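Backbones bend. Our protein:
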Amino acid sequence: ILLGFIRTSYAQNQLINYPAPQEAELKNDFTVKVRQPGGEWQTIATYPVKVDEVKEARHHVELASMSYFDFDGEVEVSVTAHKEEIKAARIRPLSYGITPQVSGNTLTFKLNSPRNLSIEVNGDIFHNLHLFANPIDRNNPLKPGMNPKKLKKDRNLIYFAPGMHRLPGDTLNVPSGKTVYIAGGAIVKGCIQVVNAQDVKVFGR
């Protein structure tokens, strides 16, 4: 019974960080770190993401920030702002009731369940941090200890491993019966489209 409890407790405390591909475009408005309670901080890659601000009935594209990681159990999150001093900080959705602790230009808070969050500094909602604190991905076809070469034998699986991928002709047409999986740490440039096909699944990060 004790052994089973230890295994269960261990399984419920996981943290998976996905390093960015070398060619990835990153953004440095924020430094994002995460750790299990009492563990070492891990820096999470931060990417630019386009958002739309409407002013006087016109659209203006702004660049916000986006980061993601997977976890089970509890984690501590640290966000350091580099553009300005933190005078006020807000984490949406407000219904989650997450109130960060602010020290200098760094805010910290804890999570004990997956959340999709908007972290806003000094009321700025167009240059904020979109943080995707995901659950552990149970759909990953590459199981721990599995040789990646085995995935190539599955003719119904289109697998994008961590790294940068540019689709030939900028488009991937997915036929019927195929599963597309985009691993954490993978960036796919191009269009993945399903036209006149059935039973197609798209999974991943």
User: Anything to note?
Assistant: The mean pLDDT is 92. DSSP finds one helix and 16 strands in the chain. Residues 2-11 form the longest helix (10 residues).
